[in-house]
Amino acid sequence: MKFVFLLFFLASLFVSCSSEDSSNSLAGGNFDEPLVCVFYGYNGLGDLTYNDSINSGISKAEKNFDLIQLAYSPVDRDEARKSMNYIFTEIKEKSLTKKHVLCIFIGPEYINLLGENEIFMAGLPVTAFMFDTPESDIPESLKDKIHTVFIPYYGACYAAGKLLRMEKEELNTQPNPLIVLPDKKNELLFDYARAFITGLGEQFPYSFDDVDWDALLTGNNSGNYTILSLNNYLIEKSGFDKADTLYMYARLVDINGDVKYFFPLCGGSSLGLFHYVQDCPRGPSFSIIGVDSDMSSYAPLYVPFSVVKDSGRVAYELIEQWLKSAENIEESLPKSQLKTFRQGYTYIADSPYSLDFFFTNEIIESVYDEAVEYEEGILGGAQ
Q1: Is the CB of residue 146 less than 8 Å from the CB of residue 114?
Q2: Which candidate among 4, 202, 265, 320 keeps its CA 20 to 30 Å from the CA of 103?
Q3: β-bridge pairing 287-288 and 261-264
Q4: Which residues pair with 288 in a beta bridge?
């Protein structure tokens, strides 16, 4: 069992650290153990949420199945392109096969990169998975080369909104949530925000193509909520990598006192909220709904519940499927997979530490059926 982590693209590090025994490494002459190459989102590892959850599942598989993991977390598109070129060239030169190499790509940015890569498009013999990606997002030119697994968040986000609505109705409070999106380009996250707002019982009169972002940011819309798109503030950085920006925005919100809940659908940027809470000795005026992982331990008194995507479990199961189907991948490994709220791959996790005692397990369980119905209505009844 070996593990290689490449935060920056350095071929020398790849060669020198991948194995104690060069005969079993990709850089060596013989290759016997299964190789799993993981391309995380830009600067994704260390986000304590989505990417780290996936990494935990892959590391567990590495330990249990005696395989080699090569993990890349490039800082930007150029570094991702160089990393892909390097690993694809090595695979081609070693004459490896689909039963030897599994590549997992995390983030929609890799779809275009794969389509532009001449080595991959020429028929590179690897099993490739786009992680948490709807099959419909894959262009025709790639559909015969890529498997997909999709973990929809519609049900869990609807359930989160519904819980705030129940608190409002039972306790006569105003949740005034602020939904944080990484940018204005991610239609899937936009739809998850819509699911949350629908559960909240508020109107959301926009389609993705006709959004009035100024109205959503100022709250000048038909609902008691606001939506912040982080790329309004620092366009040259990924919206998933703006913890410092969200830290400053949390400070402004705390001063104004007009937001009760943050709902951060923005990956690692959400850490800015938790850093602010830790730096605020008197405690903030808002609470944070955890997203992607159970975040209750990061701000124990201020996370009433978390919307969890069990990405680590999905990653582990993908590797297990691949290993079992290695002798007949094309016939036995599904081209697309769906991991749903009903199946337990997304769920609401209560917090044992929160000062908000409304969100009990009983209350959380009471929204389950309605959330399942909402998600399956969008997915066409898929289970």
Answers
A1: yes
A2: 265
A3: parallel
A4: 262
N-term to C-term CA, the chain: 35
Do 80 and 42 form a contact (C-beta atoms < 8 A)? yes
Neighbours of 235 (CB within 10 A): 9
Place of tokens 């199946």: 343
Identify residue 140 by its one-letter amino acid code. Answer: E
Residues 6 or more apart whose Cβ sits within 8 Å of residue 289: 160, 177, 261, 262, 263, 264, 303, 304, 305, 306, 307
- Return the pLDDT at 218: 64
Q: Report the alpha-carbon distance of residue 58 to residue 36 in Å, rounded.
A: 9
Residues 316, 60 contacting (CB under 8 angstroms)? yes
Q: What pLDDT does 33 receive? A: 82
Residues of the chain with pLDDT under 70: 1-31, 218-223, 232-237, 327-328, 330-331, 381-383
Closest CA to 37 of 65, 21, 22, 58: 58
Query: What is the distance between the alpha carbons of residues 160 and 170, in angstroms, rounded to a whole number?
Result: 16
In this prediction, residue 130 carries a pLDDT of 97
Token pair recorded at residue 152: 């929809």
- Nearest 5°: the CA angle 39, 44, 46 is 120
Count CB-CB contacts under 10 A for residue 97. Answer: 13
Angle, helices 368-379 vs 154-171, to 10°: value is 140
CA distances from 168 to 162, 171, 173, 179, 359 (A): 10, 6, 5, 17, 12
How far out from the chain centre does Cα 79 lie?
A: 20
